[in-house]
Specification:
Blueprint: H1 2-28, H2 30-67, H3 75-132, H4 138-147, H5 151-173, H6 176-195, H7 197-211, H8 214-255, H9 261-271, H10 278-293, H11 295-320, H12 329-343, H13 345-370
Helix pairs in contact: 2-3, 2-6, 3-5, 3-9, 3-10, 8-9, 8-11, 8-13, 9-10, 10-11, 12-13
Length: 371
């Protein structure tokens, strides 16, 4: 017994020394460690992208496998089921991308073009109105004197800022050729994962069983199951919500004869992919488009969107989608804010399911300790 205790103490001491050594080495050679990590990330990036593609495709593949003759014992059907379901899933993604590229993006681009065309007039009108009332608000008068630009100059300044940001983003992402190669490699890796997912799962289970104690292995598996459930429900839920909200908005705007209905509806559906705040971003774009044509209708549009959001969020969404995120609203907002600050658009999309997974695991751990 004493020998086992001493052995455990020696292992703990060795682990502590190694951990301290890693920390000291990282502090002393911080720049070199960061550069090495960046290089390794660049090397394995296609594999990470492939795993992500495989995960998203697997949601569709699993769904198709449930309806592709699931009870058949025919050898041919069993042999082709996985390949056929993968092909159907890829075809579904291609159709969604086709819809996105041919319908949503042109509509979004057209809305930006209309907004840019009408922005100078709107700016000048707001500027004239503010100038007339500047005497009543001294602070406003000082701001107007310092502004000293018309609508066209303001639009040019906005375009220059966006242009600098866009070129910086392109430079950061690298060449188009490199991105294309990464996407092709990632897609091939994803197909291999999907064809051998059961075998990979078995090997991963054996690896954990060989090198991890039972208690830690069960905790890790529980965490992975929670993450899988959260991410899959989040992806499916947000896609359903975006489609529902986009269709309802387009139909409602056509019925109430709002201008740019076929443009604003898809844009609101697209921005609804961002939880909690996305639809309001789309509504802001719609308001700016309509206010250029008819300010009164723009106010009614805000009222329409507010009512639509309440109906969709409280009646339709819970019945069709359910509680796909499982995260309180305040934490959703916090996850979006932190994710955007760390990883930009990717952080906005991934921050919520990551936070929801941590929230569920922490909630379960707290309840277990309190019981």
């Amino acid at each position: 017994m004493n020998g086992e205790v001493n052995n455990n103490k020696q292992k703990l001491t060795a682990k502590t020394i190694v951990l301290i050594g890693i920390i000291v080495f990282t502090v002393l050679y911080f720049a070199e460690v960061i550069n090495t990590l960046k290089y390794l990330y660049g090397v394995i990036f296609p594999l990470l992208m492939g795993a992500t593609i495989a995960y998203v495709l697997n949601i569709l593949v699993s769904g198709y496998e449930k309806v592709f003759f699931p009870n058949s014992y025919n050898v041919i059907i069993i042999g082709i089921r996985r390949g056929a379901c993968i092909i159907l899933s890829v075809f579904t993604i291609i159709l969604l991308l086709f819809f996105f590229l041919r319908i949503v993006i042109p509509q979004f681009s057209q809305s930006i073009g209309l907004l840019a065309a009408g922005f100078p007039v709107l700016y000048d009108n707001v500027y004239d109105w503010a100038s007339q009332h500047a005497d009543e608000i001294p602070v406003l008068q000082q701001k107007l004197e310092g502004l000293n630009m018309d609508g066209a100059a303001a639009l040019k300044k906005v375009v220059n800022v966006l242009g600098d940001w866009a070129w910086g983003t392109v430079s950061f992402m690298g060449s188009v050729f490199g991105v294309a190669i990464n996407v092709i490699l990632a897609f091939i890796f994803a197909i291999y994962i999907l064809f051998g997912k059961e075998d990979l799962n078995d090997k991963f289970g054996k690896l954990l069983k060989a090198y991890m104690r039972t208690e830690r292995r069960e905790r890790l598996c529980e965490g992975l199951r929670t993450a899988d459930e959260t991410f899959s429900n989040y992806i499916i839920g947000q896609c359903k919500e975006a489609i529902i909200l986009g269709l309802l908005c387009t139909i409602g705007m056509l019925l109430f004869r709002f201008p740019y209905a076929t443009i604003i509806g898809p844009v609101i559906g697209l921005t609804a992919l961002v939880p909690m705040v996305g639809a309001y971003i789309g509504a802001a774009i719609g308001f700016l488009l309509i206010v250029i044509v008819d300010p009164i209708k723009a106010l009614f549009f805000i009222l329409f969107i507010t009512i639509l959001q309440q109906v969709e969020g409280n009646i339709i969404y819970p019945k069709v989608v359910g509680d796909s995120i499982g995260l309180p609203g305040i934490w959703v907002f916090a996850a979006i804010t932190v994710g955007a600050g760390l990883l930009g658009i990717a952080g906005v999309l991934l921050g919520v399911p990551v936070a929801a997974t941590v929230y569920k695991l922490l909630d379960k751990s707290i309840n277990e300790r309190l019981c």
